[in-house]
Amino acid sequence: MKMIQERLCKLRTSMKAAGIDCYLIPTSDYHDSEYVSGFFMVRKYFSGFTGSAGTLVVTGEEAVLFTDGRYFIQAAKELSGTEIKLMKMGEPGVPSIKQYLAQVIKEGGTLGFDGRVVKADDGKEYEEVLAQKKCSVVWNRDLAEEIWEDRPALVHNPVFILEESYSGEKASRKISRVRDKMKQEGADVHILTSLDDIAWLLNIRGSDVESCPVALSYMILTQNQALLFAEETHPEEEIWTEELRQYLKENQVELRPYDSFYSHAAQIREGRVLLCKGRVNYRLLKELPENLVLVDRPNPTSLMKAVKNSTEMENLRKSHLWDALAVTRFMYWLKKNVGKIPITEVSAMEYLESMRQKCEAYREPSFATICAYGANGALAHYSAKEDTCAEIKPGSLLVVDSGGHYLEGSTDITRTFALGEVPREMKEHFTLVLRAMLTLKNTRFLYGCRGVNLDIRAREVLWERGLDYKHGTGHGVGYLLSVHEGPNSFRWKLQPDYQENAVLEEGMVTTDEPGLYIEGSHGIRIENELLCRKGEANEYGQFMYFEDLTCVPIDLDGVDVSLLEEKDKERLNSYHKEVFEKLSPYFEGEELAWLKNATREI
């Protein structure tokens, strides 16, 4: 890991020249996106850690990386051989980032970071805790600019309109709804910097962020004006066609240069500004005039886009059917050929992708596919590489977590496959995870419940055995947007971030994906997407239930039937009956016979 040490050495040299004692590098872009383009992979450049979440903190004496339970095993491997110490967030004795900064920065010292990639509320917390030690914050230094010589360019690709037949609602109507919400909050101005919110509001999509069809942009909205700040030109192709420009004009949206956003924000002279400090960056907070009243609330669009309308719901059923055909045919191919032809984690991913590409509505993966065999399955967010990937053969489990973006919506599915005869412990663990997943998706509940109320329905199956998994049980899914979307989720801990604790509304899509990970041996995750629906309303209130969007067989070869209760068998048989009814019209011959067996009653 000599290369990482050399980069850290250069970083420390730049820190010293800038008078910075401690430098912080999160995993983000200017818009708080989950996935970022190559230009923003600064944390990966300086640490070598490839996970999608983590914060690197570097002082003159040490370097540490904070990440969550999804990446403990992966980070330990990737940081091995470097000086960087792994900080396992949430574990006993491990300080928070804020606590760590307070410990290592000396009295009167200086913390530095690029304020464009640090969330406003995080930046304020750092500022407040360090003020107690009379420390200062330098928030306008991107030190990577001085060090990363072959840094990828910032990406700005062409934009397209998502027609109303897909979105189900005109952009003008959405803008009107947001303005109504502004009035309720007493706000004169609303600032949006999150890309999925802007894309949803204007019914536009792009490809500036890998696996998330959005365009790099900012937006400032008043009752009389809508300003969109986005790159207008591209050296090789047109970003905004004449049709798009006319579309914006019809919706009374003015296009402004991407780089003029901060200077325009600094000219807002008075009034109340609605924004979400959990989504905007720290630089914006510093640029806005101090006399403004900031109304810190979740973006109105966050809840609006989470609640899918009837058009979106019907389209989602279509996209999941097409996705199911691809994944089920992959399952058939895998089961038929494992142990007979050479298959690796990478070649399996490529075959699955080729199945999805057969659908005309398919656009791209909704995230980087996780295809993890054997011990690699214990890495919840494993990433297979051509030169290091495992060969897939009988005798163990294969975890495949994948998804696709279609014009009719986004999908996210995980299936674990038992290949050949597998050890009894693996089947036991597989069956426990299956029971957990079936229990949650069959839950009936009264309106008003949040994900934190229901997570126990899945997790208790494992807790009864003294087992657990270090990730949420489920997350919201966007419509041809981010595959991880708030404010709905299933988590057992109440989140300090109010954007993750929403009441479950009809039209929300949430994943159901319990798992179990045994380091050095195997991993299991089984995931369906659930559409929240209204059920019976009676004297006790409005009851709710979940409709399965995902319709792919669950591998019965991994199930230890003796560990299933009768209600588990009923639930599994009912699900497989529905899967067969939906998919069988698209199969014939040997494939159809296999599908019938794969969805057989147990």
Please tell me about this protein's structure.
The strands form eight sheets. Strands 4-3-2-1-5-6 form a six-stranded mixed beta sheet, with helices on both faces. It folds into three domains: 146 residues, Creatinase/prolidase N-terminal domain (Creatine Amidinohydrolase, Chain A, domain 1, 3-Layer(aba) Sandwich), CATH 3.40.350; 146 residues, Creatine Amidinohydrolase, Chain A, domain 1 (3-Layer(aba) Sandwich); 292 residues, Creatinase/methionine aminopeptidase superfamily (Creatine Amidinohydrolase), CATH 3.90.230. The protein is 35% helix and 20% strand. A hairpin with a 2-residue loop joins strand 18 and strand 19. The mean pLDDT is 95. It contains 19 helices and 28 strands.
Provide a short characterization of the protein structure.
This protein is of the alpha+beta class and 602 residues long. The chain has three domains: 2-147, Creatine Amidinohydrolase, Chain A, domain 1; 160-305, Creatine Amidinohydrolase, Chain A, domain 1, CATH 3.40.350.10; 307-598, Creatine Amidinohydrolase.
SSE layout and pairing:
Blueprint lengths: L1 H17 L3 E4 L16 H6 L7 E5 L3 E5 L4 H8 L5 E4 L8 H8 L5 E3 L7 H12 L4 E3 L5 H4 L12 E2 L2 H4 L3 H15 L3 E4 L2 H8 L1 E2 L11 E5 L4 E5 L11 H9 L3 E3 L4 H5 L6 E4 L6 H6 L5 E4 L3 H7 L3 H28 L7 H12 L5 E4 L4 E4 L22 E7 L1 E3 L2 E2 L2 E7 L4 H18 L3 E2 L4 H13 L10 E3 L8 E6 L18 E4 L2 E4 L3 E4 L2 E11 L2 E8 L17 H18 L5 H10 L4
Parallel strand pairs: 1-5, 3-4, 5-6, 8-13, 11-12, 13-14
Antiparallel strand pairs: 1-2, 2-3, 7-9, 8-10, 10-11, 15-18, 16-17, 17-20, 18-19, 21-28, 22-23, 24-27, 25-26, 27-28
